[in-house]
Amino acid sequence: MTREFQVQGTPVSELAREFGTPMFVYDGAALRDRFFGLRDRLDPAMEIFFSLKANPNVSICSLLRSFGARAEVSSLVELMTARRAGHPPENVIFLGPGKSRQELAACLDEGIYAIVCESLPELALVDELARSRGVRAPVALRVNPSFAVKRSGLAMGGKPRQFGIDETELFAQTDLVERYPGLDLMGVQVYMGTRILSEDVVVENTGRIFDLAERLSATLGFGLRMVDVGGGLGVAYFDGESDLDAGVLTERLNPVVGDFRARHPETRLIMELGRYLTAEAGTYVVAVRYVKDSMGERFAVADGGTHHHMAAVGIGSFVKRNFPMTVLNRLDEPATEEWNVTGPLCTPNDTLGKKVALPSVRPGDLIGVHRSGAYGPTASPVLFLSHGYPAEVLVHEGRPHLVRERDVPEDLLLRQRLVDPAALGAADVSP
Ligand SMILES: *Cc1c(COP(=O)(O)O)cnc(C)c1O
Fold first, then answer.
1. pTM, rounded to two decimals
2. Looking at residues 400-427, what average pLDDT do you find?
3. To which H or E segment does residue 206 belong?
4. Pocket of ligand 1 (CB under 6 A)
């Protein structure tokens, strides 16, 4: 008798039979619990925007929208995804340091809520595009703050960055409103970094961002209709980390939000969350093809690897730390052995887990990399060795749905063009 990993009652082996491996499986109920775990506690004035960057699957985006999430996008296709997922334009914001003219034009033509601008030349371009259309562009300023709150994972403030406009530079632009008549300056955005696992850091960031937004709008002379406090809320992946406590977080954050709200009752408040919303709900499922020993270490060679899950190589760290992993089809067997779990790529970096404690692994076993619903395949070199995209399956209300087909060889060959060497003027000397 072996206990098996299930998603809403469907055993993972059944999902693997139906959809094949490697695949990403998302649990819609986990997604819902994650969202409402925060939503139900957070001051209702603070809106939650889903950062599509973390998981741009249109069905994931649409399900989150049905819960009440809005959309924060950073590319033309993410914008199209959000619209296709059913987001009305007034619930979409677009940010990113290198927006193209085409992307900015699409923001204006779609009539999204705010373009978050990240440089002075971008402001000039948006101004030009808006005036040529006879409209005013709703623009929020992304600020690269002078301060950095310590312990905030990948810290963004207080350093030279390609993101946002330096705080000191912005405060000197006192004629910004007059300079760009095509811009409707309406808000401020600050993103302090990712993978934050301290409630106090989130609270302190938020307070400082509110303060900065107030001072900036007063100095530059525009009304504060929106403040986007970023987010960067993390999830625990590795030994020694622990998850944020939504209860503790909101207990400390809500008074800060309420305080600002009392002074600015009309201002729309935004928190952008990617990883926090989707990571926990996803499992990367690979099947073991071969097991072998090498110089005293055990290797389980699986059909999927870091080309689908680059984050598993190690996030922001030179030391390899393992994501939580289990043998999904034998959950109740004790993890008495150490295994290197590797993929099919011809590079030693294709290691999903190093010296992972697992039960004895056999060919055909399904290994799951948990908490993998964020920064999976889209943040990975899916074309390396031409393996392509894995299948993605969303299980909701007890039923599995294929939400992305795996790439087939023709998908990968389709966009290449074969130029005959003769057409290149080369003599074909092959025998
Ligand atoms: C990446 C990013 C996010 C999402 O970050 P998470 O850590 O996944 O929540 C939000 N806002 C900005 C500006 C980002 O660059």
1. 0.96
2. 93
3. helix 199-220
4. 51, 53-54, 95, 191, 194, 230-232, 272-276, 374
Angle CA 407–412–415, to nearest 5: 135
Residue 58 lies in a domain: no
Distance 290 CA to ligand 1 centre (A): 37
The verdict on 206 and 249 lying in the same domain is: yes
Let me know whether 362 and 404 are in one domain: yes
pLDDT tens, residue by residue, 306-324: 999 999 887 777 778 999 9
338 vs 287: CA distance, rounded Å: 18
Whole-number Å distance between alpha carbons of 3 and 6: 9
> Residue 202 Cα, ligand 1 centroid: separation in angstroms?
14
Task: Name the residue of 38, 47, 51 whose CB sits within 8 Å of the most ligand 1 atoms, as the mutation to test its pocket.
Answer: 51
Which of 273, 296, 328 delimits the end of a domain? Answer: 273
Number of structural domains, the chain? 2
**Do 260 and 224 fall into the same domain?**
yes
| Structural domain span for residue 356 | 280-413
Mean per-residue pLDDT over the chain, rounded: 95
Mean pLDDT of 200-214: 96
Q: Which residues contact 69 (CB under 8 A, 6 or more apart)?
A: 35, 48, 49, 50, 277
pLDDT digit string, tens, across residues 135-177 = 999 999 999 999 877 654 556 678 889 999 999 999 999 999 9
